[in-house]
């Protein structure tokens, strides 16, 4: 189910009900606000649930029976916590994907160079990651993606193809911007909620639900993430899982 399907159902249905009401039956006017409420619920729910692929196709997991998973981090680089996370990944020989914010790449280019030098993939996460990214004018949204692509290129001489929408929110404007910039949209299937949860055990309980093909979402600008990462890795390894880089999991190149 996506917004095209919903539109193809909703508007003809509204027309049919109106015609029936005019020419054949006495249909209560209550049916209109009910239908509109359902329609609005679906378009909002679809916008905030990237895995539904409601507005565009996003890679949120891989269909596989193999016990392989990918680790991704958003919102960095962070001067304090990203180095700790990189140290932990290096210690365990795990490659991850970092969806970086362009303005932070500009502030801490050496960290992005380190990510690249140590074999991690770099993805695009907009330039400013504003709360209103999904409501920006299309040209501005496109510029945010392009500016981040350019700053990443100037830093590691590679152009990213993987884009994660801020907050994982999508809509027709985001779809347009992603297509115009020739990016692949990436979501997740296992969310740690490390931006909200402060208890390590609670996050680990979420990780307990890991399944084959999962794309795991963490943030490398959070203290809790740097503190829990080794325990999370140990938990997944104890369950027989292997960490692979995102481009290998979803079979899409990370760079142009």
Low-confidence sequence ranges: none
CA-based shape: globular
- Binned, the helix content reads 40-55%
> Between the first and last Cα atoms, what is the distance in angstroms?
31 Å
Radius of gyration, in angstroms, nearest whole number: 21 Å
Query: Could you give the count of β-strands?
Result: 9
Task: Give the amount of beta strand, in percent.
Answer: 5-15%
CATH class of the largest domain: Alpha Beta
User: How would a textbook summarize the main sheet?
Assistant: 6 strands, parallel
Give helix and strand order, one letter per element, not per position: HHEEHEHHEHEHEEHEHEH
Number of helices: 10
Number of spatially distinct domains: 2
CATH superfamily of the largest domain: Glycoside hydrolase/deacetylase
Mean of all residue-level pLDDT scores: 95
Question: Would you mind describing this structure in some detail?
Answer:
The structure is a single chain. The chain has two domains: 3-47, no CATH class; 58-250, Glycoside hydrolase/deacetylase (TIM Barrel), CATH 3.20.20. Helix content is 47%, strand content 13%. The chain has ten helices and nine strands. The two termini are 31 Å apart. 39% of the residues are buried.
């Amino acid at each position: 189910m996506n917004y095209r399907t919903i539109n193809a159902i909703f508007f003809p249905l509204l027309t049919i009900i109106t015609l029936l009401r005019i020419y054949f039956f006495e249909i209560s006017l209550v049916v209109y606000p009910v239908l509109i409420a359902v329609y609005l619920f679906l378009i909002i729910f679809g916008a905030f649930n990237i895995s539904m692929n409601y507005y565009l196709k996003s890679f949120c997991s891989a269909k596989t029976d193999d016990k392989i998973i990918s680790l991704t981090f958003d919102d960095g680089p962070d001067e304090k916590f990203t180095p700790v996370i990189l140290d932990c990944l290096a210690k365990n020989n795990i490659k991850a994907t970092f969806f970086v914010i362009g303005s932070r790449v500009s502030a801490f280019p050496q960290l992005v160079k380190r990510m690249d030098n140590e074999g991690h993939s770099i993805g695009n996460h907009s330039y400013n990651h504003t709360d209103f990214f999904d409501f920006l004018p299309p040209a501005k949204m496109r510029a945010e993606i392009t500016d981040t692509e350019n700053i990443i290129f100037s830093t590691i001489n590679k152009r990213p193809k993987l884009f994660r929408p801020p907050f994982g929110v999508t809509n027709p404007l985001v779809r347009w911007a992603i297509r115009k910039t020739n990016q692949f949209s990436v979501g997740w299937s296992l969310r740690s909620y490390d931006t909200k949860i402060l208890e390590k055990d609670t996050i680990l309980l979420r990780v307990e639900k890991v399944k084959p093909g999962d794309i795991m979402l963490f943030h490398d600008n959070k203290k809790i993430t740097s503190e829990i990462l080794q325990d999370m890795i140990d938990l997944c390894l104890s369950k027989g899982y292997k960490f692979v880089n995102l481009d290998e999991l979803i079979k899409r190149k990370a760079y142009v």
